Amino acid sequence: MSERRSEVKKASLSLVERKQLAARNRIVEAADALFAERGFDNVSVTDIAERAEVGRTTFFRHFGDKTEVVFAKEQAMYDAITDATSVVLAPTQSLDSLAGALSALEPLVVRLCEQATADLAAYERHTLLLDANEELRARDALKNQYIAKELEKVLLKHNAPPAVATMAAQLALACYASGHSLAATPGDLVAETRAAFRSTLAMSSAAAEA
Amino acid sequence: MSERRSEVKKASLSLVERKQLAARNRIVEAADALFAERGFDNVSVTDIAERAEVGRTTFFRHFGDKTEVVFAKEQAMYDAITDATSVVLAPTQSLDSLAGALSALEPLVVRLCEQATADLAAYERHTLLLDANEELRARDALKNQYIAKELEKVLLKHNAPPAVATMAAQLALACYASGHSLAATPGDLVAETRAAFRSTLAMSSAAAEA
Fold it and tell me: Contact, B73 vs B114, CB < 8 A?
């Protein structure tokens, strides 16, 4: 019965929302192309709506402003974290220790990096856009903090101690930021982020050797 | 001779710049009070200039916009990192390992926290302002990334390997962010940040025990 209902829901969604989703995708693609052509500051919402062949009203149904379009993909990834929780954290993983909790977050963060760089050209355009615009970098830095908050919630949901959850989430973000900074090309993001987790988790033993 | 010259410079500065500094301080104090009274969005540059008894021209000589005033103190702290480099990192500290580099940054970050919370009431007002305004939180997140970049430069200047410098700076920022998040009151920021460094540096041994 509940399966039946969800099929009905899916079908009814597809009628109305398929068009909305198509419009949304056209907006994202149009904005992406226009920003790359003219630079973020030289593109208006009207320009984006025109290129996407939608009205301004439709634009504002999907996005609050043109900055939000830049982070449309991040938003989707961010939403995905909350959904994918139980899949990613193995139930046998001990989350009581900081190292355990950080290890548990690694596959989640790596998957985010994989998703972000699945389309390398798009990722590179996104990076160039941010490099050229301080306001977008600020927004990006804040989005990363929101992602850390989501990671923290995932750990808390799995009964990690609160201080461990907070710290592991911030360290996971630091590993991502390091990976991002150390990646020579977008294609290296995943490997560098993994390496940053490895180095962080191996830290104290390395210090003992020194 | 060079000492003499710096004395002359200091004397000449004090004539012109003392007034400028006084004006700058009045602007910061006026903005601080007005933001607390009315909220960030309901205060204009004209309001701030009037309260500070300076012209708008003087305001814009010191700050690009009203957002910059919010981070005036952070900017000073940020400048202080570069100056204080040699004082803070003991030359005997090994910066080749991640743990060594992270330990070396701890006193620097703790000192920043001490400076930030030296005036607890002002720090609390600053925090409330950020809590109420997403744009300011974005700017704050970006400032923290700039501070991480400065910490990285400090390590590089002391010949830490580049990857170690990048990672240690990001982990140090994570420790600060954790301390900030875990501090029940502004007065706890320093202790919680220290504790975050301790936990991070002790991480792997804790995992080995588990």
Answer: no
* % of chain B beyond a pLDDT of 90: 62
The phi and psi torsions of B43 (rounded to 5 degrees) equal -125, 130
CB contacts under 8 A, A 42-81 vs B, are none
Instruction: Choose the weakest-confidence range: A129-143, B9-23, B52-66, B167-181.
Output: B9-23
Please answer yes or no on whether B99 and A204 come within 8 Å at the CB atom.
Answer: yes
Q: Examine the domain organization and report whether A105 and A130 are in the same domain.
A: yes
**Which of A65, A92, A115 represents a domain boundary (last residue)?**
A65
Same domain, A111 and A52: no
Name the residue with higher pLDDT: B85 or B28: B28
Which token pair is A202? 């191996």
Cα–Cα distance, A207 to B97 (Å, whole number): 6
Cβ-in-10-Å burial (0-12, 13-18, 19+) of B77 comes to: middle
What is the per-residue pLDDT across B177-187, written as a single tens digit (0 to 9) for each?
999 999 999 99
> For A143-174, how does the pLDDT look when each residue is reduced to its tens digit (9 = 90+)?
999 999 999 998 998 899 999 999 999 999 99
Interval B124-166: pLDDT, tens: 999 999 999 999 999 999 999 999 999 999 899 889 999 999 9
Q: Are residues B56 and B75 in the same domain?
A: no
Answering whether pTM is above 0.80, one says yes
From chain B, pick out residues whose CB is under 8 angstroms from the CB of A202: 204
Residue B182 · residue A163 · CB < 8 Å: yes
Q: How far apart are CA A45 and CA A54, in angstroms?
A: 11
Say whether both B79 and B10 belong to one domain. no
Which of A65, A93, A118 terminates a domain? The answer is: A65
Q: A171 touching B, CB under 8 A?
A: yes
Q: How far is A195 from chain B (nearest CA, A)?
A: 10
Of B171, B201, B206, the CB nearest to A97: B206
Does residue A160 sit at the B interface (CB-CB below 8 Å)? Answer: no
> Are the Cβ atoms of B200 and A137 closer than 8 angstroms?
no
